[in-house]
Design brief:
transmembrane, membrane, 257 residues, alpha+beta, transmembrane helix, five-stranded antiparallel sheet
């Protein structure tokens, strides 16, 4: 009995595997290597760290944060402003710098587009660093990082909570009034939750028959403010918005908007 043995089969199979590797496998390895070299999401925050260090160094030298990032290169704290790295899956925009009007705190944002993230073909999100929190915050939808008003309330609210001083309570009320007036179509809506999340609920107060939350300083000046809020929102959700602020102690006339 003579058994037929197909030696050509092995040769064809080996050639097919080699061809497939050259066609698909090798480019795939190159793609993975470039992805690793060009940067991952963590690399963007690592790239921003020298920028954050330079901003904080400026604050140590001058007692305030710079108005623009260009000031850092002018003073020799940086040779160039870094930009977020790209990789094959994610495109990232420039770092966006925001500083409070009093140059008291800053935030750093960048947008990134993950082409394969989420349920769709691409997904935008914003990552934010806040100076007084000292960390990067979550994955916000693109264009919806914490608003300057929200950050200002948190910063001033934390200062008052820690010191219970009249100066910092005055600052909190002033920040709300200042930033709420920046709306192009009228005063911005101030969420009462932004205040309550930092200070908690205040004592009950009343101005002209309207109830509110009372916050009092614990120093010699003993500033007192009544925050008047009202309900607002849509068909399914309602929120509390601060609509007026009255100063109740006798040292000054009550600010309001």
């Amino acid at each position: 009995m003579v058994r037929y043995k197909n030696t050509q089969y092995k040769s064809i199979t080996a050639d097919a595997i080699a061809y497939f590797f050259r066609l698909v496998g090798l480019p795939l390895l190159v793609v993975l290597l470039l992805y690793h070299v060009w940067g991952t999401p963590k690399d963007s925050q690592a790239t921003a760290q020298p920028l954050i260090n330079a901003i904080e160094r400026y604050h140590q030298l001058h007692g305030s944060y710079p108005e623009t990032l260009g000031t850092l290169t002018q003073e020799g704290l940086l040779t160039a402003i870094p930009t977020p790295p790209w990789d094959l899956w994610t495109r990232r925009d420039q770092f966006e710098y925001f500083v409070d009007r009093d140059l008291d705190f800053f935030s750093l944002n960048y947008d990134e587009q993950d082409y394969f993230g989420g349920l769709g073909p691409s997904k935008w999100k914003t990552r934010t660093y806040v100076s007084f929190q000292g960390k990067w915050n979550g994955n916000y939808l693109r264009g919806s990082p914490p608003l300057p008003l929200e950050l200002a309330i948190k910063r001033a609210g934390e200062r008052f909570r820690n010191t219970q001083s009249s100066d910092n309570l005055n600052m909190l009320a002033g920040k709300i009034i200042e930033y709420s007036d920046q709306g192009s179509d009228g005063p911005l809506l101030v969420w009462a939750e932004d205040v309550w999340s930092v200070l908690g609920r205040g004592e009950t107060c009343e101005v002209d028959g309207r109830p509110g939350e009372l916050y009092k300083a614990q120093d010699a000046h003993a500033a007192e403010y009544c925050f008047i809020s009202r309900k607002g929102g849509g068909y399914f959700y309602e929120f509390d918005f601060i609509v007026e602020i009255f100063r109740l102690d006798r040292s000054e006339s009550p600010p309001q908007w």
